[in-house]
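User: Quick sanity check before I run a bigger batch. Here is a single chain. Can you write out its predicted 3D structure?
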Amino acid sequence: MADQSKESEKMICEDHNSPVDERSYDLYEATRNSLLRNELDDKNKTILNNIDNAAMDVNLEE
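Assistant: Done. Predicted structure follows.
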């Protein structure tokens, strides 16, 4: 166990981040990217719906 803690300390000193910090940041990035993709998907759906509605309005006027 002592060897593991020394190795962890060494990693912290070398990288200036603990493995937990790095994993937390990776999760943060993945969540952020997922939320951005979902937000873009929602905006794209709205735009496509608006285009469809406009096309239907044009067809009804003809």
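The mean pLDDT is 76.

User: Great, the batch can go ahead then.
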